[in-house]
TrEMBL record:
Protein name: Translocon-associated protein subunit delta
Function: TRAP proteins are part of a complex whose function is to bind calcium to the ER membrane and thereby regulate the retention of ER resident proteins.
The keyword Disulfide bond appears for this protein: yes
Primary localization: endoplasmic reticulum
Keywords carried by this UniProt record: Disulfide bond, Endoplasmic reticulum, Isopeptide bond, Membrane, Signal, Transmembrane, Transmembrane helix, Ubl conjugation
Residue intervals passing through the bilayer: 142-161
Recorded GO CC terms: endoplasmic reticulum membrane
Signal peptide interval: 1-21
Pfam families: TRAP-delta
Entry's localization field: Endoplasmic reticulum membrane
Membrane topology: Single-pass type I membrane protein
Organism from which the protein derives: Darwinula stevensoni
Family as reported in the entry's similarity comment: Belongs to the TRAP-delta family.
């Protein structure tokens, strides 16, 4: 009996620390994206986030979702910084305001359970959210220069040929 009480007294602080997670996180985001999509197959988006908890916790895993899809999160060598990255085809890459939602392990478990059950996952409250303002990548000019040169040469040929025909008659 004494051994059980001793074991519980050792495990209780560890379990409490694991279950509490980060409280009142303060997030400092930096977001980057590809600006030129003329020669690439995928537009890359990278976000670096510094997360500081009010309780001083620095060692906790994070999970992220964007448009209800899971996005990978990795921790940098600086324990309080995380990196999120994803890539999309230039035709599917959305611009404008989007929200990146972050979950701790417990919240992500609830998210995945709701996702498997087909429930509305937007109602699940994240640990914190980061609003993103994404710019559309440049996809090149509306009219290609080769086509424009061809069109101008056809117009010049037409004008020259019709002027020649007018002079000859």
């Amino acid at each position: 009996m004494a051994a059980r009480v001793y074991l519980v007294s050792l495990l209780l602080p560890i379990l409490a620390a694991v279950c509490l997670g980060c409280e009142n996180p303060k997030v400092t985001p930096k977001v980057y994206s590809s600006t030129d999509a003329t020669i690439v197959e995928l537009v890359a988006f990278v976000g670096e986030f510094e997360v500081l908890c009010s309780d001083g916790d620095k060692n906790f895993p994070l999970f992220a979702t964007l448009n209800d899809e899971v996005v990978p999160v990795t921790r940098t060598s600086d324990i309080s910084k995380y990196i999120v990255s994803w890539a999309e085809e230039p035709s599917n890459a959305k611009s404008g305001s989007q929200v990146l939602r972050f979950f701790d392990e417990a919240g992500f478990g609830v998210f995945r359970k709701a996702q498997r059950a087909g429930e509305d996952v937007s109602k699940i409250s994240p640990l914190f959210s980061v609003p993103l303002q994404l710019e559309r990548a440049y996809k090149g000019p509306w009219v290609r220069s080769e086509f424009l040169a061809f069109a101008i040469s056809v117009i010049i040929f037409y004008i020259a040929y019709s002027t020649k025909s007018h002079i000859m008659s």
